[in-house]
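INFO batch 0412 | record 1 of 1 | parsing
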Amino acid sequence: MTTLTSAPLAPLIERLYTQASAATSPMLETVSHDERERLMHSKTEYRQLYAMLKDLWLPVSRDTGKLLYMLARSTKAKAIVEFGTSFGLSTLHLAAALRDNGGGVLIGSEFEPSKIALARHHFEEGGVSDLVEIREGDALVTLASGMPGSVDLLLLDGAKALYGDVLGLVEKHLRPGALVVADNTDYCPEFVAHVRSPQNGYVSVPFADDIEVSMRLA
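INFO prediction complete | emitting tokens
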């Protein structure tokens, strides 16, 4: 058995996915589809969008969660950075991998205080709180300093228009062979173009419908 597939984490994750699927956002329902799409691509109004989304869990899929665990385990990750914690489902998968790798640290960033409070409760309940440090605020500030000297895996799953900016903050800390996993990449073509361009130091492939998995070469 692994941390991911045994109690207390396995039943917790299953319960949280059930809660996530039932969550609604009355505020978001007042915004037109075109306006949502505009905000998703905005580099200046993302705080407005995510305020509307504060009641939604926005989790990675179950399969993506398992993929994150597998990638972190297979690379023997000890230092992970996550952009966009939300209520912590992706964090739980990554922290499980850290536990099974013998320990480490996951630094996450989230600017919605209510989400941070509940996420921390989930980490306590799942028995992984000692592995997780969540920084409250805009990731362009919270992830600009205090990074581990060597980062093994970066998960991008916050405001999509900022993927390239967040990568720019963490990039110098990525060790050769480190992985960058980006979700919902249909909203960030500039980021995808960056990691797919050979001169930028990555080898990168699309995975499933809208995930990009990239490896830092040097």
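INFO post-check: The chain has one domain: 9-15+56-216.
INFO record closed
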